[in-house]
Amino acid sequence: MDNDTTDASTLAFGSLFPPPTSASSESDPILSVAEVYTITNHFINSSNDDDANDVLKKVHAYGRRFHGMGMSGISTAVQFEQLNNMLQDLRDVLLKKAFVSNTTGEELRLHEYEASKLMDLMSTTSTSDEAKCLIPSLKKFTDGQVEEYLELVKKAKLKISDIS
Amino acid sequence: MFYVKWIPHSVVLSPVHFGPKLYSTITRLVESSVEGTALSHYGYIIRVLEVPEDRMRGGVIEYDSGEVTYEVEYKALVFRPFKNEVVDSVVVDVNQLGFFAHLGPLRIFVSQHLFPSDVNGIEGGGFDGNSWVSEDGVVAIREGVGVRLAIIGATVEEGNITAVGTINEDFLGLIDVGEGEGM
User: What pTM did the predictor assign?
Assistant: First the structure.
């Protein structure tokens, strides 16, 4: 493991996620805990106890506790599908929203890691200070720009909590 | 960090497996050999999502054994911790040195030296035999609570990944008091 060179606070993930070479280049998806929970829930429900490996079961239990989406009432396949669509919509809107840097004039967008961490760690009352403290790479955005991202997360979480 | 990745893998098959079910045999072998394991570069392989036939290269015969090696690429859901990543975890063991927390299959140790000073006893609080308690008694880190921590290092040993974390930074520490308690 390349421990010496990776650093999530600077988006340095080594050869696993090299810096994008163009604006249109695609990277492997980095998932939020809620998204992982919907995936593991599908596999847990479609297999018997013998098929699910221990790591899958532990990740599923972790996702059930720490998804951060206030969706304790979700249990049916239809609800999970609805949730999955909402999470994908949130991810899409977070990754598509762009700003222009006040200092360099370059276009600023969220990295996949930043989008997933906003979905994981931010609550409906989180501030830009908290976001920048927990996700230091967000310091490239102004407080107002981070607040706009937080507003998107807040709206989505409130909508998700209404799923019943 | 949870992510989806295409990962290369070699599958060795003896001739008894050749036939119309070759593809499903290769898929089953990939799943059984990697799921639940920790790969040093990628992290924990949680689940194999896809083993597409068009990502399998033709087999190479091993002249000594007669077995055939297939190079395949599978898509997997993976987890790997990164330095300075902030994560939520559940405390599983508390002792005088600090506490252990679990994030899925990952075991994270947080030393009491990396607690806030009003919890580790330097400016107040301390270990009461079961939990680390803050000076004002509001925060009690004990088995079963949820904690937000920052990973400061991770190592791999024999296919197992362990990590070390800290809660001595802003917005880190206790987040819930047990299963069912929300953030």
Answer: 0.91
The answer to whether the Cβ–Cβ distance between A1 and B1 falls below 8 Å is: no
Q: Answer for the pair A86, A156: CB distance below 8 angstroms, yes or no.
A: yes
- Nearest chain B CA: its distance from A62 CA (Å): 5
Q: pLDDT by residue (tens digit) across B98-127? A: 999 999 999 999 999 999 988 887 777 888
List CB contacts of A112: < 8 A, sequence separation 6 or more: A17, A27, A29, A30, A95
* Domain interval for residue B110: 86-174
Q: How distant, in Å, are the alpha carbons of A96, A107, B17 from that of A103?
A: 21, 11, 62
Which chain A residue's Cα is nearest to B144? A65
Residue in chain B nearest A36 by alpha carbon: B2
From its phi and psi, is residue A117 left (phi > 0), alpha (psi between -120 and 50) or beta?
alpha
Same domain as B9, residue B68: yes
The CATH number of residue B146's host domain is 2.40.50.140
Q: Which helix (H) or strand (E) holds B147?
A: strand B146-157
Crossing angle, helix A33-45 and helix A77-96, to 10 degrees?
Answer: 150
- Is residue B126 assigned to a domain? yes
pLDDT of residue B183 exceeding 60, the answer is: no
Task: Decide the pairing of beta strands B60-61 and B68-79.
Answer: antiparallel
Range of the domain at A128: 29-163
